[in-house]
């Protein structure tokens, strides 16, 4: 059974440093823990595809950037994600896309961390779907903020999350929609996390700052299985 695909803004995800594994088995699921406590095995993000580049040396390895109103997600698709890689290779930025994939955090020797997504499915969407994702992700973030005082001790000690800081992230995202002078979309019929078909892509740092990207040779050695 697949883990539900979580919704997190890029500004929060790019601050994520914790990765935990449940169990000792090599097949035990791993989770990226975000500053507000989201346990992300899989992510569902919708935003603007701003760049796609094949950075592979022998085999194709596509690096894509998908931006939401708060920052940019880093997406890598290689030989272990052939369908997503093929879709990305045919896309021409900028366009609205939905990405469902595995959450991951790369930790190079210098101690920094680089959150990324290993896509399972990528599809084009329209502006309305992007807007609905923003509104629903804002709601999910607020729900986590309401329980911020219940964070596990290790998460609190790692991040020391600021309530006001992440409220500002939500405000920034919603202001972006209002700034585009469109009526805020309804979320009454928006699926709960993990309810929609994950195969279609429609399942359910400092802010805006890019962390340094890893060298290509390092990325090619990541476990994308």
Would you spell out the secondary-structure blueprint of this structure?
Blueprint: E1 5-6, H1 10-13, E2 18-21, E3 30-33, E4 39-40, E5 42-54, E6 62-68, E7 71-77, H2 82-90, E8 95-106, E9 114-124, H3 127-145, H4 153-159, H5 163-179, H6 216-220
Parallel strand pairs: 1-5
Antiparallel strand pairs: 2-3, 3-4, 5-6, 5-8, 6-7, 8-9
CATH topology: OB fold (Dihydrolipoamide Acetyltransferase, E2P)
Shape: globular
Biggest sheet statistics: 6 strands, mixed
* CATH homologous superfamily descriptor: Nucleic acid-binding proteins
Helix content: 25-40%
- What is the CATH C-level name? Mainly Beta
Give average pLDDT, whole number: 82
Number of helices: 6
- Sheet-strand content, in percent, reads 25-35%
Q: Provide the low-confidence segments as ranges.
A: 181-225
User: What is the second-level CATH architecture?
Assistant: Beta Barrel
What structural class do helix, strand and pairing data support? alpha+beta
Number of domains: 1
Reading the helices and strands in chain order gives EHEEEEEEHEEHHHH
CA(first)-CA(last) distance: 17 Å
Question: Any idea what the radius of gyration is?
Answer: 17 Å
Number of strands: 9
Characterization of the model:
The protein is α+β, with helices and mostly antiparallel strands. The chain has one domain: Nucleic acid-binding proteins (OB fold (Dihydrolipoamide Acetyltransferase, E2P)). Helix content is 27%, strand content 28%. It contains 6 helices and 9 strands; from the N terminus they run βαββββββαββαααα. The chain has helices at 10-13, 82-90, 127-145, 153-159, 163-179, 216-220, and strands at 5-6, 18-21, 30-33, 39-40, 42-54, 62-68, 71-77, 95-106, 114-124. Strands 1, 5, 6, 7, 8 and 9 form a 6-stranded mixed beta sheet that branches. The protein has a 3-stranded antiparallel beta sheet with strand order 2-3-4, with no helix packed on it. The chain is globular, with a radius of gyration of 17 Å. It starts with a strand and ends in a 5-residue tail after the last helix.
């Amino acid at each position: 059974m697949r883990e539900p695909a979580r919704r997190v803004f890029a500004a929060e995800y790019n601050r994520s440093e914790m990765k935990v594994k449940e169990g000792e088995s090599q097949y035990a699921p791993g989770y990226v823990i975000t500053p507000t406590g989201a346990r992300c095995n899989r992510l569902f993000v919708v935003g603007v595809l701003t760049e796609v580049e094949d950075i592979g040396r022998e085999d194709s390895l596509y690096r894509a950037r998908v931006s939401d109103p708060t920052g940019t997600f880093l997406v890598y698709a290689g030989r272990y994600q052939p369908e997503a890689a093929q879709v990305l290779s045919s896309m021409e930025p900028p366009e609205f896309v939905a990405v469902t994939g595995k959450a991951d955090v790369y930790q190079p020797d210098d101690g920094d961390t680089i959150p990324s997504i290993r896509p399972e499915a990528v599809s084009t969407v329209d502006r309305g779907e992007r807007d609905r994702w923003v509104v629903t992700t804002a709601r999910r973030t607020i729900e986590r903020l309401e329980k911020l005082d219940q964070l596990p001790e290790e998460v609190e000690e790692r991040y020391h999350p600021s309530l006001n800081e992440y409220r500002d992230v939500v405000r920034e995202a919603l202001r972006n929609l209002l700034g585009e002078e469109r009526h805020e979309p309804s979320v009454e019929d928006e699926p709960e996390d993990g309810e929609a078909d994950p195969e279609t892509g429609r399942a359910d740092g400092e802010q805006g700052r890019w962390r340094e990207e890893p060298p290509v040779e390092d990325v090619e050695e990541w476990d994308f299985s």
